[in-house]
Amino acid sequence: QVQLVESGGGLVQAGGFLRLSCAASGGTFSSYGVGWFRQAPGKEREFVAGIKWSGSNPYYADSVKGRFTISRDNAKNTVYLQMNSLKPEDTAVYYCAANPSGIAYSTPGRYDYWGQGTQVTVSS
User: Fold this and answer.
1) CA dist 123 to 11, 13, 17, 44, 88, Å?
2) How far, in Å, CA of 26 to CA of 24, rounded?
3) Which neighbouring-strand residues pair with 12?
4) Is 108 helix (H, G, I), strand (E, B) or coil?
5) Which of 3, 20, 72, 95 could be disulfide-bonded to 81 (CB atoms 3.0-4.6 Å)?
6) How open is the CA angle 18-74-103, to the nearest 5 degrees?
């Protein structure tokens, strides 16, 4: 059983940056695929970025490509989401999710474990 805890959210002005962290405990996190998702009020949860167990070939939603970077430090059981050039439309609760297959999927239903989320608010 893996427990995930997100941190690093907050209020930032447009054009600013934040770094989110997803810290894991329990299980063999280094072998898990991890995704970041977000959900804005009244909208469905959407994929943001994913990274497989090895850290290679991360991929991103088109809406964040070139601005966000996902990375992981398996020695620290932590996955990061560096968010630069933030826009008001990035405002949402951000969640990390993990699955034991080692693969990062863009579909929420493919993940077994979820964090509680961290709020990101970007003001214009």
Assistant:
1) 7, 5, 12, 21, 6
2) 7
3) 122
4) helix
5) 20
6) 90
Per-chain mean pLDDT for the chain = 96
- Contact by Cβ (8 Å): 58, 71: yes
> Helix/strand/coil (H, E, C) string of 10-22?
EEEECCCCEEEEE
pLDDT digits (tens, 9 = 90+) for 40-92: 999 999 999 999 999 989 999 999 999 999 999 999 999 999 999 999 999 99
- Kindly report the CA angle at 15 between 9 and 21, in degrees rounded to 5? 25
Paired residues of 122 in beta bridges = 12
Cα gap 65→3, rounded to integer Å: 28
Of 95, 97, 92, 101, give the one whose Cα is nearest residue 121: 92
Collapsed DSSP state (helix, strand, coil) of residue 25: strand
